[in-house]
Q: What sequence folds into this?
């Protein structure tokens, strides 16, 4: 049996992705026919998507893309056109919608946290690493549901404190949140001790969350006193771990904020689709 590689696009996944691929302008509204001798034949959308997933998983630079995927410059041009068209966010949204229809997004207990990564070549959305000011880095702030699926992603330079990024994170949820009408359907926002303070509580309540901020020691104490209690905040740390498996996010060679955000959205979408497939069994 042939080994299935991590970046292989299954027929099932491609059936979900293909309808969302942006149509090239010259193909919109009419059937495009390539003239004889008019340059290279356009790459197939599935080939381009597979190449982008390969880059995301392995972390290589664009110019190092293996020739079996086609021209690296052409793949990068497709990538830019697709993120400008909103394809990667759309794929993420559709994946969340399907997951919600099958399993249901766990809105009651959400969690948020930020994580840093290296970005030595970045020219936008970058700042000195607080733990090593000689190096540049980026920070990604996640909001996840109770099972760890990413609902929102906001990016900044590594030097911005997590609490300063929370307002933007909560404002950029990519799917419609259920309306909070009373204590029966209250949505809790679980945060670590770095968020403690009135400003963060004010931001959380502005977005109709009930904030719950606890240190690791406090969480252990709660677990000791109430053995049947369920830990809540750890899911966001696991979500960051899931994203770090996509090595192009761990060490970012993307110069612009838009391209880095697009890769984060693609990783979040792939994680979402993988969880949906596991539910189907």
A:
């Amino acid at each position: 049996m042939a080994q299935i590689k991590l970046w292989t696009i299954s027929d099932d996944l491609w059936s979900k992705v293909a309808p969302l691929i942006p149509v090239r302008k010259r193909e919109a509204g009419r059937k495009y026919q390539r003239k004889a001798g008019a340059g290279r034949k356009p790459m197939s959308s599935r080939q381009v998507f597979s190449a982008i997933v390969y880059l995301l998983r392995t972390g290589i630079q664009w110019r190092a893309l293996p020739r079996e995927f086609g021209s690296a410059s052409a793949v990068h041009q497709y990538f830019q056109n697709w993120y400008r068209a909103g394809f990667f966010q759309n794929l993420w949204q559709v994946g969340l919608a399907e997951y919600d229809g099958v399993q249901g997004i766990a809105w009651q207990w959400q969690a948020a946290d930020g994580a840093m990564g290296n970005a030595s070549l970045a020219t936008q959305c970058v700042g000195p690493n607080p733990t090593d000011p000689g190096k540049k880095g980026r920070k990604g702030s996640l909001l996840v549901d109770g099972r760890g699926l990413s609902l929102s992603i906001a990016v900044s330079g590594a030097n911005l404190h997590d609490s300063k990024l929370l307002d933007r994170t909560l404002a950029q949820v990519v799917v419609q949140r259920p309306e909070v009408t009373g204590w029966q359907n209250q949505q809790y926002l679980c945060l670590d001790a770095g968020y403690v303070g009135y400003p963060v509580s004010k931001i959380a309540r502005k977005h109709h969350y009930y904030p719950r901020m606890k240190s690791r020691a406090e969480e252990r104490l709660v677990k000791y006193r109430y053995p049947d209690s369920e830990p809540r905040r750890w899911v966001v740390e696991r979500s960051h771990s899931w994203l770090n498996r996509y090595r192009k996010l761990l060490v970012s060679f993307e110069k612009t904020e838009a391209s880095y955000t697009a890769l984060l959205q693609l990783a979040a979408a792939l994680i979402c689709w993988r969880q949906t497939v596991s539910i189907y069994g």
